[in-house]
Amino acid sequence: MGSYKDAWAWYTRIIMKDRNNVSIKKIGIEALLHLKSFEDALSLCDEILVVHPSDIEAKRAKGDALLKMKKVEVLLSWCDELLKQNENDILAHQYKLEGYLKKNLFRKALGCCSQIIELDPNNVPARRKKAFCLALLKQFDEVLECCLEAEQHCIEDLTLYKHRYNALIKLGEENPQTILDCCDKILQKNPEDPATFLKSKATALIEQGRYQEAIEVYDRFDNLDTESYKKKALALMSTEQYIQAVECYQSLLLRTPKDIGIHMNKIEALRLLDKRDQVLISVDLLLALDPHNALGHHYKGWAHLALNQNSEAAASFTKAIHFDPNNIESHEKKGEALLNLGLKNDALKCYREIADLDPRHIGAHKQIGDILSRSERHLDAIESYSKVLELEPSAVLYRQKLMKLLANMDDYVALIETSKKLLESNPEDEEAHQNIGYGLLKSGRPREV
Questions:
Q1: Could you tell me the mean pLDDT of each successive run of 10 residues in the chain, 449 residues long?
Q2: 404 alpha-carbon distance from chain centroid
């Protein structure tokens, strides 16, 4: 401030010697503006403009003084006078724009921006303010047009790229490559830019399935926010980096220990790593938060089953089915555990429940047929194996099982028909030929044999 006071003191001394010296007056104006003596600065500007009405520096100083004094109406009137004299006075348009912005008249400000850009297509501040006004008016499609037009004039401006990015987000841009390109341009202009654009870039990469590149972007951060941690973990899971994913989920649980979704994702990662004991520990933490979580009980059953703890597995799958009766996989795994325990009738009931849920579930019909066959309930087993072949005619193994049952049951007509169907898929099947011959012989048709 002291130097401007000295400049003003110098001005008052020297101006007495040469009152018409425009250069000296401009020094005085600059000093007065910095000393916030706007009225005095304005008077000096007018002195210059009376003699030199087109003096750019004086006009600019007057405009600045009026803005600082918040005399917006005076500013706008003065600009109108200048434009009457010269409609292409770009400085008048610029100060008129500033006046409209001060009054929050954004639509009128847009008109000024367009006139400035028409006079000077490379005027970056005018393009920035146009994008700013359009954004405030929520005309985001036009923001994009404004930014694209700037690029067509080879204007590569960081502020305009940011306006374009915000407009794309507001419009819900579905093409991640568009977001990615915009983020790249922002980061090229300013590599130290806020983390927002790096995170948006990582999100766009994930949406494109470029998971490893997204991970590399996230690795640039010393500390990620919760949402970014979740996305990084997703990328790690998608690239089968399960150990690192578990570490991510563990870090997230330190922040949000009651987040059920994070617990579930961690358990899934541990399951894919075949860490059965750790799955059990993690599931217990989950079920302490949500005792009715069907999938949690299912994962617990999976771990017990993998550890050959079949009683515990069956109990866990029973709970899982209680909370989610339509989960066929829980029924299947429960049936497997029951068979391991030798509880054939309970397993049979389990597989029949699956067949009720999904009559076309071929695995259930196969298991039902096998259990019934081992229990020597041949008629019922034949019915189940027939259902298997109805659903999957190419199931050779089950056609063979059916033929053996039919032979034991002396149902020679069915044995012949089943064997013929087997030959359709494998004409060289010797057992099928033998069964046809056997069936014909037992049916009293030796000539056909």
A1: 59 59 74 79 83 85 86 91 90 91 92 93 92 91 90 85 84 80 78 72 85 89 86 94 95 94 96 95 96 96 96 96 95 95 94 93 91 85 83 83 70 66 68 67 61
A2: 56
Residues 6+ apart with CB under 8 A from 67: 75, 95, 98, 99, 102
- Cβ within 8 Å of residue 395, ≥6 positions away: 362, 366, 388, 389
Tracing tokens 């069907």 back to the chain, one arrives at 294
Q: Tell me, what amino acid is at 418?
A: T
pLDDT at 341: 95
- Cα separation, 384 vs 363, in Å, equals 11
Place of tokens 């014909």: 440
Distance CA 160, CA 406 (A): 80
- Token look-up 């990662």 returns 269
333-368: buried (b, 16+ CB within 10 Å) or exposed (e) per residue?
Answer: bbbbbbbbeebeeebbebbbbbbeeeeebbebbbbb
For 424, residues 6+ apart whose C-beta sits below 8 A from its C-beta are: none
Query: CA 123 from chain center: how many Å?
Result: 36
Residues whose CB falls within 8 Å of the CB of residue 247, separated by 6 or more in sequence, listed in order: none
Buried b (16+ CB within 10 A) or exposed e, 207-245: eeebbebbbebbeeeeebeeebbbbbbbbbbeeebbebb
pLDDT tens string 187-235: 777 766 567 778 888 888 888 888 998 999 888 887 888 998 899 999 9
How far is residue 198's CA from residue 196's CA, in Å, rounded to a whole number? Answer: 6
Angle at 162 between CA 161 and CA 164, to 5 degrees: 65
Phi-psi category of residue 221: left, alpha or beta, with phi > 0 → left and psi -120 to 50 → alpha: beta
Q: Are the C-beta atoms of 72 and 99 separated by less than 8 Å? A: yes
Computed from CA positions of residues 77, 82, 83, 85, in that sequence, does the dihedral angle turn out positive or negative? positive
CA 135 – CA 139 distance, rounded (Å): 6
Cα three-residue angle 125-126-128, rounded to 5 degrees: 65
236 neighbors 242 (Cβ within 8 angstroms): yes
Q: What is the pLDDT of residues 288-340, one digit of tens each?
A: 999 999 999 999 999 999 999 999 999 999 999 999 999 999 999 999 999 99
User: Tokens representing 381?
Assistant: 């087993």
Q: Are 150 and 157 in contact (CB under 8 A)?
A: yes
